[in-house]
Amino acid sequence: MVAQGGQTTAVHVPDEGEVVVEHLELDDQPTGFQLHDLEPQEAVDAGIGTVAQEVVNELRVEDLKVGCGHRAASKNAAGNSPSGGRGAAPSGRCVRYAPSGDQDMTVMRTAIQLTAESGAWPDLVTYVTEAERLGVDHCWVAEAWGGDAATPIAGLAQHTDRMTFGSGVFQVGARSAANTAMTALTLQRITDGRFSLGLGASGPQVIEGLHGVPFGRPLTRMRETIEVVRMAEAGEKLILDGAQVRLPLPGGEGKALRLSLLPGDIPLAVYIASLSPRMLALTGEVADGWLGTSFVPEGAQSSMDALAEGAARSGRTLADLDLCQGAEVAFARDDDDLAEMVAARKPGLAFSLGGMGSADTNFYNTAYARQGFAKEAAESQALWLAGRRDAAAASIPDAMVLATTLIGNESQVADRLALWHDVGISHIRLYPAGDTLDERLATLGRALDLIRGLEASQPADGP
Fold first, then answer.
1. Where are the alpha helices (DSSP H) in 191-234?
2. Can you list the domains of the chain with their CATH numbers?
3. What's this model's pTM, rounded to 2 decimal places?
4. Which of 134, 140, 224, 436 could form a disulfide with 113 if both were Cys (CB 3.0 to 4.6 A apart)?
5. Cα angle 291-296-297, degrees, rounded to a multiple of 5
6. How far apart are CA 13 and CA 40, in angstroms?
7. Residues facing residue 198 across a β-bridge
8. 141, 149 in Cβ contact below 8 A?
9. Tell me: the pLDDT tens digits for 398-454?
10. Rounded to the nearest 10 degrees, how much is the dihedral formed by the CA atoms of 410, 166, 293, 11?
11. CB within 8 A of 39, min separation 6: which ones?
12. Distance, CA of 428 to CA of 455 (rounded, Å)
């Protein structure tokens, strides 16, 4: 265990009766904490150490504040992760330990998300640094058909100390598999291990229309891209005779290469943005976390089942995945204000249902249909494709907007957050509403207070 700006890090070794303590901020030195209790020294020097169970049992809960940072994969004596792959994930969830050591409390990590084009660069820097000051754990940077995600992450990481970053997402058709690995490992190096690789298949309109790459077999391309990333991270030569990725190119003059960039000490966490059942199952099987969207907690069971099915293929459970979902958060002054908020969000939802994809392939529409809004999704899409966009928005019921967002008065938002927690979400992306930076930060602060209140309300024997 090492101190890092008032924080400490340790790694879980379950077979040896030790426990995870990820980035605990200490107000006072915990009772019983002694540096000589921590070993091996090599791991301590690398920023990862272990803490004996009896030491953790003496920690007082009131001495600890939970704040997730880097994630370190558990490894057995042979240096392998429990699921057999290098860097295959622990849960990624923050854990607060009661003095008895008998029960842990699972809480939701918090995140923001942005794009390079979402504001002036100085404003983005301020937003991220202020979010870190408020206690946000992570920042996801998206790319679609505007700015890329890697460049802002490299820049923003230099303005923060604790916050972790992730690509939300790199489209697997936009970069070669090797270039994806190069970019991810470079960002892991630049951020001092504070980077997570988020990957997504996107859709045919972007992949074929913008990048000129066939969209066919996105599931296979995703799996093979991750295989290449893991090879690169392990320092191996990049050799894969896949259906979508073939390295080196057969019949050419090239030979297999390994990256000259050495991997860091902290395993690279890989997240998949998935909506379809098959991609959800792949997420459970090979990824460290799920980047979800278009989420209705009341209809989440089908997604959770698909994730669990995939996790079982690699000897894991949902507890081994960091389940990340996101939604806009906004606080209404009264019922009239809430009605205006709901109406203002219908055009955006109509775009997701009708415009985010082709007439034949719209993963967002299908996801909403699977979560209980099949009739509404089909009707809005048909109106959108007919060019009747105002009608497409008007057809969406208020209940659908409320089900997919975190908007309402404080009590309503708190109830929605509790529901997200109860269905298993461990990592929440917040899109705070507001016309100005100060308003967005104020909304973000209120949401974070509600999440902290949710954690405090959990019973001592767990949720």
1. 204-209, 218-233
2. 7-106 (no CATH), 108-273 (3.20.20.30)
3. 0.77
4. 140
5. 90
6. 13
7. 271
8. yes
9. 999 999 999 999 999 999 999 999 999 999 999 999 999 999 999 999 999 999 998
10. -80
11. 49, 50
12. 13
